[in-house]
Amino acid sequence: GAVAMMLQVDPDLTAGDIRQVFANSARRDYHTGNVPNNNFGYGKLDVASALEYLESEAPLLAEADQTSEKIAFSNYPNPFNPVTTFAFSLPEQTEVNMTIYDTIGREIKRIFDNQTKEQGSHEVTFDGSRLSSGVYVVRLEAGREVITRQITLIK
Q1: Cα–Cα distances in Å, from 31 out to 72, 85, 90, 129?
Q2: Does residue 89 surpass a pLDDT of 80?
């Protein structure tokens, strides 16, 4: 089913392209550990991210560097009430910013502000008990990479 949806976005994908999209868009978290590995391969299948990857202005698949390590970023649970844990994995030591915004772009909470983090896996807990139910956006900046995720608070 995931491959069929990807082919709807780009009917010219080859088997190698599909494998690369899955590897580049796989969800990584503290359960997967450092990937690739024998238990999780490149991570957990994330069809929505695979489709976003295909629709983004990402480098052409044939030219993408398969050896580059990416930053893994997730949160669990999502939806949450009132606490969620952000997990991220860094391929090298870097400065990290992490900020939560509401849907109109107002800053709600700055979790990290230019903090240097070591290579490896990191976790931070966020308590949304003072917030209203709704959708929020978390933005992680690490080095040159910026990753955003929607999180949903349900009370």
Answers
A1: 11, 13, 15, 26
A2: yes
